[in-house]
Amino acid sequence: MNRERRSLAELAEFVGGRIVGDPETIITGVSAIENARRGDITFAVEEKYLQNAAATEASCIIVPPHITESELPLLQVENPRFAFARIASLYAPQRRFEPGIHTTAVIHETAILGREIAVGANVVIGENARIGDCSVLFPGVIVGRDVSIGDHTHIHSNVSLEDGVTIGSHCVIHAGTVIGSDGFGFVEDKGKHYKIPQIGTVVVEDNVEIGANCTIDRAASGQTVIGSGTKIDNLVHIAHNVVIGSDCLIVAQVGISGSVRVGDHVVFAGQAGVAGHLTIGPGTVVAAKSGVTKSLPGHMHVSGFPAKPHNEEKKIVVSLPRLPELVRKVGQLTTAVQRLARRIDKLEGGPM
Amino acid sequence: MNRERRSLAELAEFVGGRIVGDPETIITGVSAIENARRGDITFAVEEKYLQNAAATEASCIIVPPHITESELPLLQVENPRFAFARIASLYAPQRRFEPGIHTTAVIHETAILGREIAVGANVVIGENARIGDCSVLFPGVIVGRDVSIGDHTHIHSNVSLEDGVTIGSHCVIHAGTVIGSDGFGFVEDKGKHYKIPQIGTVVVEDNVEIGANCTIDRAASGQTVIGSGTKIDNLVHIAHNVVIGSDCLIVAQVGISGSVRVGDHVVFAGQAGVAGHLTIGPGTVVAAKSGVTKSLPGHMHVSGFPAKPHNEEKKIVVSLPRLPELVRKVGQLTTAVQRLARRIDKLEGGPM
Amino acid sequence: MNRERRSLAELAEFVGGRIVGDPETIITGVSAIENARRGDITFAVEEKYLQNAAATEASCIIVPPHITESELPLLQVENPRFAFARIASLYAPQRRFEPGIHTTAVIHETAILGREIAVGANVVIGENARIGDCSVLFPGVIVGRDVSIGDHTHIHSNVSLEDGVTIGSHCVIHAGTVIGSDGFGFVEDKGKHYKIPQIGTVVVEDNVEIGANCTIDRAASGQTVIGSGTKIDNLVHIAHNVVIGSDCLIVAQVGISGSVRVGDHVVFAGQAGVAGHLTIGPGTVVAAKSGVTKSLPGHMHVSGFPAKPHNEEKKIVVSLPRLPELVRKVGQLTTAVQRLARRIDKLEGGPM
Question: What are the domain boundaries of chain A?
Fold first, then answer.
């Protein structure tokens, strides 16, 4: 971290906040509340976390407007977490990428390169590829034919962009990820599997971030799409012809089957899966390890496998530990009822 | 897509089909039934899908022999899906790989290279490796020592083939996949884990396709085997000493533990797992997210964790939402039975 | 395998064992008990496995001290599995890596290289990186700026070590793995996700082995840590700020969410997951496919999702197949109780 000196007044202006305390307080870094040192700014979204703050050496706490009192200087903003992230970016070490093309990069003569791009060692750029301005290709990146990359996009080491895929501007693609591999499309005839040609492509829109070692398959025909602003974690699998909306969050090891359509602002927690050809409406939240087997209208929180409304699943999960006891009890009840029946038989003067 | 013009007669001959309608109909492309444009050929496996066809602009529909009437020309074949895939391959853009070895490829002097191979930029081929005729190595592929690759095999970018592995002919291995990494074999002594040398290898037979970013470990000793014609999706893990039969389908993110033996024509759906040392008989279908914990004789459809016959699992899954109500009901029944018992006591002149 | 000739006496001395039988027996290799050939040494940890041994052609069996009789020569040791692994390493083909730097490697002038390192073709080593003595970088490895690698560490093909990460001595990192990718840290403001700068790093301590195509994210701030002696299988995801203790085993496709703290000697079986910010105490065993949702004190065996003590989960799993029948029975009981109630009503002279 650059431990640069900035006044609290300067930071308040940067994030549009209101200071409670000394505006000349010097801030030299950012930190989570439990690790903060003297000079650090930290944040708290609820009053209860301020007790931790009292114990830290932090020099200022970013808080929501309703928190007004503390022994430490406060910076009041509407969204403390967001203000914290923005201030953190001020102190983050800015790695500048010197524009330039490493002498070992292999660039096809027909490729079109933007201004101020940085191309690392052993990068390969294919025929008719196009790289936008200020983009950065780390060492070992392979860019296939007819690939298009926008401006200010960073592609980390050993990423493979297969022929024809399109990556937007202001994207980040982490190391080892593969975009544009063939979809898993085969047809069976007499017990053998024959490949269905995968002649579509992948479009990754602007402001998308994709984690490390993900796989995003090209469409059988048409496009696999990752909508703008969507963020994808590591080891995620997106099958052919999937269309993901904007501003989704897809956590690590999620798998989305072929031709699924996902609306905007959908969240998939870790290791969840979705069966093929479903539609997941906007605003859906899919809990970790869930398996979605039916289309969802949107704005639901689902969990379990098969995925159900989270409240229903929770009731099942809470009841499950009682199941072994239930089996026993039902056995006992059956015996008890038989015994009562015999006693009633007797009272009725029935079979004795 | 090459929008080349072919007559329906020509296509019927190619797939061995029978035309209902005008054999001179011109076909310029292929498409799914819902997206078909004028000039496209599409397919329908059941009568009910023909209603969609009526609404499309398709110029011909591939159908099974029992479908005989439609407003559009028909092409009757035994397996419409397969005929469609074959015709699609006619129209798929054929990427021709110019034979040749890129100047930046690093090839050991002892390596044996077949005829008409295409070796991309920054490929590394190790000592005593052998590449068959007409095979294609994309940029950044690493071929270890003593690796053998058959004819007409395509290895995509940044694949790592570790020392000694064997890849058959007519295989496709997608980007980022690792074949021949060490198996996960350790032995504990006094709380420390010591490595068991992994001195076996991997054999991938002919006509195998392996997706992107998969991992296939070498055997501890002997061979890990992927049988001929088997197709593997992305991010699949195959542990050491696994033997997979022929013509299997293994969908994305499946994990198969060490020493498992899988018969021919087995299907694993996405995110399924198999515990170590089991035998999965031929024709088994393992549903998505299942966990197989016992050997299976074959020709079963299993699901759930632990995996059970699919019909049994389905009954459990259907019953589960009733579990919370069941807990309540059993409580009520217990009370009701106690109350009845007291009433009977009274009738019997028992304890009052 | 080197089929070198060693006497049983020599091997006994190497592992500190006691011979029952002829010390001059010649051993030329190692093998699992079911595949052993003449000249092989194998092992058996329990008497019952000796029956298999009787059927093999093995020339000697490594056994625990309480096994004293067999038709074959025995080698008695405290930990037969460990002795077997050590003897196997004697017979494993020792690949020697000729020290040297391939002419195509791209090494920054400020990098500091240890003695007798082997650097393969197309390796890239960044500014201020430091490689310890006798370490081996396979072809295509990318070492970022300020990366530090200890002594005797092997990094396989196409691994990406991002800027600033530290790898200890005697480590093995398998092909395609990414260490130091950004953590998945975003903050939402008005429906958009903004990146929280990930300015921490990753520390991999000594004697760690990491499988192929894993992803280990850098901390948001501070360090993600993999403790010494821990062994990680393929396709494992370790999120930012996770701290893993020493001598853990993490099997394939496990995912560990952000800021989780894992004690020493913890085992995660395949496809398990852990939710964020939990503490997993030392000696915990997490079964395959489990999902841990609460912190665990240590020395427990948990399974299921949400993970529970294994014994509790087992009871539920055993009861589940009875659930459909239970639903039916409770329905029948309800009817039976109503009928009894009516009969008692009658006996009591109640409503008729």
Answer: 6-91, 100-311, 319-352
Q: Among 3.30.470.20, 3.40.1390.10, 3.90.1150.30, 3.40.50.1370, name the CATH number for the domain at A6-91.
A: 3.40.1390.10
A88 chain-C contacts, CB cut-off 8 A:
196-197, 199
Structurally, at CATH architecture level, domain A100-311 sits in 3 Solenoid (2.160)
- Selecting from A140, A251, A317 the residue whose C-beta is nearest the C-beta of C124 gives A140
Closest CB from A209, A235, A334 relative to C329: A334
Of the listed A240, A277, A301, A310, which one is catalytic?
A240
- Closest CB from C308, C316, C337 relative to A323: C316
C2-8 CB contacts, 8 Å cutoff, 24+ apart = C2/C91, C2/C92, C2/C93, C2/C94, C3/C28, C3/C29, C3/C39, C3/C91, C4/C28, C4/C90, C4/C91, C6/C90, C8/C41, C8/C60, C8/C73, C8/C75
Give yes or no: B240 in active site.
yes
CA distance A81 to chain C (A): 7
Query: For the segment B12-26, what is each residue's pLDDT rounded down to a tens digit?
Result: 999 999 999 999 999
Q: Using the predicted structure, report yes or no on whether residue B352 has a pLDDT greater than 50.
A: no
Q: Taking CB atoms and an 8 Å cutoff, what residues of chain C touch A174?
A: 178, 181-182
The overall average pLDDT reported for chain A is 94
To the nearest whole Å, the CA of B158 is away from the closest chain C CA by: 7
**C-beta pairs of A57-60 under 8 Å, 24+ apart in sequence:** A58/A31, A58/A33, A59/A25, A59/A26, A59/A27, A60/A8, A60/A21, A60/A25, A60/A27
ipTM confidence score: 0.94
